[in-house]
Design goal:
220 residues; alpha+beta; 2 domains; three-stranded antiparallel beta sheet; 7 helices; 5 strands; disordered C terminus; SAM-like_dom; DNA-binding
């Protein structure tokens, strides 16, 4: 049996500098000639990046923290690949990426929960829900799907892998990409706690409260 090829590479995007002047750091995973680039939400000054070593050559605290994060991330990807080698699953670059984000086909995912809720709500139109409310739920789900695809390059995301700032990022998406006013964004985000309380842990509840505060002020 031919040996499968697998590699992990970190690099910076010099042509897409951030507002702080630093270059975003990306991770390239390659499996059997197929590759995918993933943003790891970290950045590095261009003059400090050492491509040969795939890390920062800086000695300051930020550089040390970045290099530590890169080591942890590389180890995580290799661990995922080793676990797949001992399973009966067909190893693909997309599967490695999904497992890195926590979407393995077994974990509960965000859009899965939203769609299940929407389906139940549709059945209760005229009893517990009005049609307009259900339409708003479906709009929120559609926006979430677009956001997840744009931000994480995924079709869905596991609940246990939601970032602490997920809600504030989604709010920014609604404002910038969808042009929603403060009032509409407030109602959409407020529904997270009221209608999908099991989706978000305590840290996300706190993030939601922080996000809603300026929105609540703006709608008055």
């Amino acid at each position: 049996m031919a040996r499968k090829s697998f590699s992990v590479l970190f690099f910076i995007k010099k042509g897409k500098l951030l507002k702080n002047g630093e270059a975003p750091v990306c991770m390239r995973i390659t499996v059997n000639g197929y590759m995918v680039d993933i943003s790891i939400k970290r950045s590095c000054p261009v003059n400090l990046w050492n491509q040969a070593k795939e890390n920062s050559k800086g000695k300051d605290r930020m550089s040390v923290e970045l290099n530590h994060y890169l080591e942890i991330t590389r180890s995580r990807i290799h661990q995922i690949y080793r676990e797949l080698e001992t399973s009966d699953k067909v190893i693909t670059v997309d599967l490695v990426r999904k497992l890195y984000y926590g979407v393995d086909g077994e974990s509960k995912t965000l859009l899965q929960v939203f769609r299940e809720h929407n389906e139940q709500s549709r059945k209760l139109i005229g009893k517990d829900f009005v049609s307009k409310t259900v339409q708003r739920y479906e709009t929120t789900t559609r926006y979430l799907e677009e956001f997840i695809k744009k931000e994480y390059q995924l079709s869905d995301i596991a609940l246990n892998n939601l970032e602490a700032n997920f809600i504030s990022k989604f709010d920014a998406f609604l404002k910038i990409e969808k042009g929603l006013c403060v009032k509409l964004r407030y109602h959409l985000i407020e529904e997270f706690e009221e209608d999908y309380p099991h989706c978000f842990g305590k840290r996300l509840d706190k993030e939601r409260s922080i996000c809603l505060l300026p929105l609540q002020t703006g709608r008055n």
